[in-house]
Structure formats: C-alpha cells, structure tokens
Amino acid sequence: MEFGRLDKSGTGLFGKLTTAGKQLSYMRTYWRILAGLGFALWILSWPLPSDSHPVQSEVAILAGEWHQTTLADFAEGTLDNIQSLDYGDGALSLASGKETYPPRGVYTSTVKLADFDLNAVGVEWRAQMPPHTGLQISLRVDTDGTAWTPWQEVGGLEQEGDQFYAETPLIVGSGRYMQYRVTLTSQHPDSTPIVEDITLTYIDSTRGPSLKDVESLPPRPQAQGPGVPQPSIISRAGWGADESLRFDDQGDELWPTEYQTPQKIIIHHTVTVNYDPNPPATVRAIYYYHAITREWGDIGYNYLVDWHGNIYEGRYGGLDVVGGHTGGYNYGSVGLGAIGSYGNTDEDDDSVAPSAELLAGLVDLSAWQGSRSLINPNESSFFIDKVTQNIAGHRDYNATACPGDYLYGELPSTRTEVWNNISSHTPSYFAEYLTHNTPEIIVAGQSYTVSLSLRNAGTLTWLAQGQNPVSLG
Fold this sequence. Notes:
Residues 1-57 have low confidence and may be disordered. A hairpin with a 5-residue loop joins strand 14 (303-305) and strand 15. The longest helix is centred in the N-terminal third of the chain and has 24 residues, at 21-44. This protein has eight helices and 21 strands. It is elongated. Strands 1, 2, 3, 4, 5, 6, 7, 8, 9, 10, 11 and 12 form a twelve-stranded antiparallel sheet that branches. The protein has helices at residues 21-44, 71-75, 211-215, 236-239, 279-293, 356-373, 405-408, 411-424, and strands at 62-68, 78-80, 82-85, 91-94, 104-108, 112-128, 133-142, 152-153, 157-160, 163-166, 170-186, 194-204, 264-269, 303-305, 311-313, 333-338, 380-383, 386-389, 391-393, 431-436, 452-456. By secondary structure, the protein is α+β, with helices and mostly antiparallel strands. 19% of the residues lie in helices and 27% in strands.
C-alpha cells in the first residue's frame, strides 16, 4: 500500500509557494496546518501491530452450547437397542443382551430450544471406539418444533485421542429447535462403542455482509509485478470478521501468527451446504467454530472459495502466514477450502460436483500462489515425511475423505489449468537473484571469490549445452 508521495519539485501537490511579505507568513501557517493534518492521517493509516487488540467488529456472532454428559441428560432421549451406563458421570453404549451386543442401535436426543435463531451447529464428542465398531451423529433443526429438516449427517471428522470433532460446523438454515441422533454399530457381538459426552455449539452468524454485499465491493488494488496477478480476494473486513475473537482477555493472540514460504497447496472441502445462499455467513460460522470452539484462535484455512467463484481471505496475517488446516503439514503449505460438500457425505446424497466457477476460483488462486512461490503444479516433491504432488487433497496427508471424491477427481485437470495460467504469465527463461556475499570493500589489484545464489523462475529447464544453453557467470 502506498501511504503517500513527497513531491520535491517547486510545485507541490496543492499549489505553488509564494515569497511575498504577509502572504508568505500566511502560507507558512497554512502549510504547517496541512502538514500536521497530513501527519495525523498518516499515523492513523498505520496497520495495527500484531500484539495489539483491535476494536471489535460491529458484526456480532451469537453462540451457545448444549452439553450432554450425565445419566440424567441421556435419560431424556429415546433408546433403541441402546443403554445408558454408569460410566463416569454417564455414557451410552449398545444394549447388552445375553453377554452380547446387537449390531446396531440408535439414540435420539430430546429437543433443545435455543435462545436465538441459529444457522450453524458445531458438534464434538468423546467416545471409546474398540476395533470394528462405528459411530455416526446426525442433526436436524426446525423453526417451531413441528416441521423438521431431514437428518443431516455430521461429516469431515477429526480425532484427537478419544475426542472427535466435525472439521467445520453444519450449516442448517434458520431454526430455533435442534435434535441430534447417535447411531452405534459393531461387527462383533462382544464389542460396543461407548459415548461419554456430546456438545453442540449452536451459532447465529447471519448478521453481517451478505453474498450481494461482498459481490458489490469495489476491487481491491493489487500490487503489479512479474508472474500471475493476484485474483480479487474478499478481505476479512469485507466478509465481516470479528477480529476480537483472535485475542484472549489479556489482549494476546490465541494463536500468534507465524510465517513460512509455501511449498505445497492443499485442497479441502468444508462439508457445508451446497449452493449456499449466504457464503459470507458460512465463513463467519466456520471462523467462530475454529477460533473459539476448536480453540485455534482463528479460521484454519488460508483462503476459501464459494460456488460463485468468490475468494475469501482466511487466516489473519497476509501472505505466507501459517494456517491450521492439515494436521502435521501446516508449515509450508497453503490451505484452500472449497465451500460445500463434494463427495463422501451420507452416501453422497448431500454432495454435488464442484461448479465451474468454484474450480476457476481454485485455479486462479493456486496459479497466483504457485507463481509467487515457484510451486510447479505438475511436479511432486518430498514434504515433511512423504512425497506428494505440489497441488494435492487433504486426504493425501491425513486419514480423511476430504476434499470429497468429486473435487478430488478434478485435481488433475486443475493442475493442468494452473500450469497453463502460470506459463502464460511467466517468461520461458527468467532468473531470480537471491543472495550474494560480495565484500563491502574491494581493494584494487586483489582477487576475490564471490558466491551468488539464484533460482530458475522461468518455465523452462536451464541446460548447460544444446540448442539454447544457459551460461551462469
């Protein structure tokens, strides 16, 4: 960003200086006033330092929790081949018969009335899962308790020990009433999963910019330079991020920003509603769930793309900031979240193929990132502990179905389109100079050895011989 420009010519930006009597005195006073105002505006334009606590956004996200853990809590629901256990302060398991368990049982909770209209629900639970057992949680909502939505399966699971989380909250539309269902299964009659507690975080993120609002924003000025230009990106302020969520009560960042040059681009899907009528509200719900419920201090993805192809700034901190999207592989990667469900959810009944606009957004974003960080989308390389393609899916790193079969199947053509974009904006032969150790003082008549570091930033391989040899020296 250019904060200002100093004009050193005789004619300033506001007019010519004069030299006659009182006019000179008046003009000096005039210029001092203008200079003071200019300096004040310059100070106000400075970005907030990373350790300062910003003013809370006017976009307020409402949230509450429904925690189920005791025998009394579970007794309020309906048990079908399920029993409540005196385990800890209460738990659920498959009902035991004559020393055996049935292959399947279903627990349906009581109905919870939220204290405000909600549009998203995050789900987490603690469970013991012996081998060959399974557990599935579904959720439904309603506005008045009489016309329920279909059961929506919680997908995109992450596990930390015996704690399970939905990767992102379910986007459930408007509702006041909610209800969950737990399905337990076992392939062995002597084994059962045990559910110790379930917590639902219900969220209202509808206050704030809408899809129409973000699509009507004027384009942000982009820095010009070699390589693929930066695509239009909706800023955190543009989609209504409440920056106070990133800080604790003492004003410290919950997850301090760190930086590392990207080597990989990792594609995700958010396992949220498809053809989302209000993607900015979904981004705000994911932000709250990641920052507060998951205690990450911010949204995990570096960027998100909706089905219209709009690109949203994710993790706070700007270019090369380390995100929280792929466990064990966040340092040195950029996480792109495709908003929606693109396979492997509820037998794919709730999944769709990614739209052409979403794919185009992923291509533009990946080409820009690949161009500026010299990531060749057609190549593979060693990263952390394995060899992966430079543009890969979440499933290539962690045990997950993300980004869904439909989107994952589009990655080969995405890599091709990204490379075509990079090639069209990059010279065939282009050297980028990095470092050198030239002495500060060079004495006449003396010889010196200087080491120079540079890299190939073009699209073709440098050859030392042949038709177009490249001479370095």
